[in-house]
Structure formats: C-alpha cells, structure tokens
C-alpha cells in the first residue's frame, strides 16, 4: 500500500464547481463523542463542509459501544448516504458491516483508526508508530536513560493504540535502565483518572508518563492535584496537542505533547473528490506528527 500525500488546498476551487448536485449526504459514524478528540474530529468535518450548502452532513455517536456503532453504520447504509465516514473502536469487529457498505456501492472513508480489511474507498490516518517512537526518545533523553515510565494505552482493540505502543516499546527497550509499566486508559480522562488513583494508592513509583492521548494526561493531573503532588515532579508527554495540553505545557504542568491532526480537512477534500467522480488514493497520510515542548508551544496552534 502506497502512502500518498495530497495537496488538498489546490483541489478546493475546482471541487466547488464540481460538486453542484444538491442534497448529497455525507454521514460520519463516530465511535465515542465523550472522547474529546473524537468529538472535535466530527465537528472538524462539519465545519469544513459549511462552505458547501448543497451537501448535508449528519453523524452518529456510538458512545463507545461497538454493537451500537455497527447498528448506526447499518442505518446509514439503509439511508443510502452518498459518502460514509467511519471512526471505529475495533479494527476487527466492524469489518463485516464496513464491507457491507463498500459492497453496496457506498464510498467509505476510514478515518484515523484502521481496520483489518481493504474493503473501503480510502483510509486517512497519521503515522501512529512514529508517535510512539517520538515519545520514547523524548522520555529517554529527559530521564537520562534511567527510570520507570508509566505507559497509558488507549483502546485495546484500536490499531492506533497497538501502533503507538509498538513504536514506544520498540524504542524504549534500547535503554536497559528504563522500565515500563502499562495501564489502559481508553483515551478517556475518567478512565485514566481511575487508573492513576490506583497507582498512587498502591504506592507504585514512577518517574515519567507517556499517555497516548492528552485527555488521559488531564485525568492524571486531576489525581496529582488531589494528592498534592506537583505535576512538574513527573515528566509527562501526551498526544493530540489540545488547547488544554498547550496551556499545561506553558504552565510547566505537562512536559510535551505530540501534534496529531484531526483530519477533517483531508476527509472533506477526499469526500468532495468522490462526489465529483474522481479517483481517490486508497491510503492518505495527513500532516506529519511533531513534538511540542515549551520551546515551540507558542508557535504551534492547538488542534482544538
């Protein structure tokens, strides 16, 4: 599978003219909008579609329930939407229903989290393996090659979790004096909060944290504050680079974050090409991930 970069801005002017058929429907089946990133992702797509009044946008929220996500995708298939965007929580469980949509002739865009199938029109994502590598390299340098790191993983059955973890562990194992303990936070603030509370209650010592989303680090900071533990006593790096993370980095309450684009612009550009009967790449890589620290925090805009 080839990785393809698209210069989306150049397409916009021509696509405005090409997509002139009224009442086209783009539907977004999202897995859990209680997740800050997933909610912002849906609204990012919505906002980029505002300039196209002939296109209707609708979305669903599966509230983290795979069975509900499948049901909602089935409903969009029955409605015969013109483009279906899917944000999944399980790389395997949704394959049959995604295949059903694809074989029904509904152009299907898989956004951010991949599936174990190629029965889709286009897959838009970012280099998640590199996120783990960047986090490991950063923490190893800050720890001077020695210490205990807490790895807060996201959803266990999502490919992004597996890739970020793989990149992190493969890199961090090069440092023999760094040990890693792992907990699951499901990319959610509340779940990370509960797990961090257990860690403190159990008296487990850690020197640093890599959370696979900034939302999880937000939960961590709440627990640290409750126990009067200074946030700057730990080296903490998250992912996404939200406004909350930006402010925490500025205040010294978070060491770093890894910029991870929402993908709304790329999704809309791809959907417009599909509606204009253009051939789109099977795999699209969005903007490269990048490390954000106190050194460049004021130069990079938060994703939401």
What are the salient characteristics of this protein?
304 residues, Rossmann fold, six-stranded parallel sheet, 10 helices, 12 strands, elongated
If you had to describe this structure to a student in words, what would you say it looks like?
The chain has 304 residues and is α/β, with parallel strands linked by helices. It folds into 2 domains: 143 residues, 3-Layer(aba) Sandwich (Rossmann fold), CATH 3.40.50; 132 residues, Response regulator (Rossmann fold, 3-Layer(aba) Sandwich), CATH 3.40.50.2300. The protein has 10 helices and 12 strands. The chain has a 6-stranded parallel beta sheet, sandwiched between helices. Strands 7-6-8-9-10-12 form a 6-stranded mixed beta sheet, with helices on both faces. Helix 1 runs parallel beside helix 10 and helix 7 crosses helix 8. The radius of gyration is 20 Å and the shape is elongated.
Offer a concise description of the structure.
With 304 residues, the chain is α/β, with parallel strands linked by helices. It has helices spanning 9-18, 36-48, 66-79, 95-103, 128-142, 159-172, 189-201, 214-226, 243-251, 264-275, and strands at 24-30, 55-61, 83-87, 108-111, 122-125, 147-153, 178-184, 208-211, 235-240, 256-259, 283-285, 290-292. Strands 2-1-3-4-5-11 form a six-stranded parallel β-sheet, sandwiched between helices. The protein has a six-stranded mixed β-sheet with strand order 7-6-8-9-10-12, with helices on both faces.
């Amino acid at each position: 599978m080839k990785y393809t970069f698209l210069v989306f801005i150049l397409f916009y002017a021509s696509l405005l003219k090409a997509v002139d058929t009224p009442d086209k429907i783009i539907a977004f089946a999202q897995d859990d909008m209680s997740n800050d990133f997933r909610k912002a992702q849906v609204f990012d797509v919505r906002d980029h579609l505002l300039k196209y009044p002939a296109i209707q946008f609708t979305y669903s929220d599966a509230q983290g329930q795979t069975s509900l996500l499948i049901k909602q995708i089935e409903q969009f298939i029955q409605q015969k939407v013109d483009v279906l965007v899917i944000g999944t929580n399980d790389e395997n469980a949704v394959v049959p229903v995604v295949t059903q949509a694809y074989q029904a002739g509904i152009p299907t865009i898989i956004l951010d989290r991949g599936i174990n199938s190629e029965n889709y029109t286009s897959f838009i994502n970012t280099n998640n393996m590199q996120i783990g590598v960047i986090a490991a390299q950063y923490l190893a340098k800050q720890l001077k090659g020695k210490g205990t790191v807490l790895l807060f993983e996201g959803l266990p059955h999502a490919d992004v979790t597996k890739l970020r973890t793989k990149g992190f562990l493969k890199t961090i194992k090069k440092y023999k004096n760094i040990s890693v303990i792992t907990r699951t936070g499901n990319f959610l603030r509340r779940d990370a909060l509960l797990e961090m509370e257990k860690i403190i209650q159990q008296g487990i010592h850690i020197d640093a944290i890599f959370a696979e989303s900034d939302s999880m680090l937000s939960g961590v900071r709440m627990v640290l504050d409750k126990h009067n533990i200074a946030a700057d006593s730990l080296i903490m790096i998250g992912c996404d680079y939200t406004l909350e993370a930006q402010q925490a980095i500025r205040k010294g309450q978070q060491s770093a974050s890894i910029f991870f684009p929402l993908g709304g612009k790329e999704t809309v550009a791809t959907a417009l090409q599909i509606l204009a009967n253009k051939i789109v790449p099977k795999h699209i890589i969005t903007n490269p991930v990048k490390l954000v620290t106190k050194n460049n925090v004021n130069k990079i805009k938060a994703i939401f």
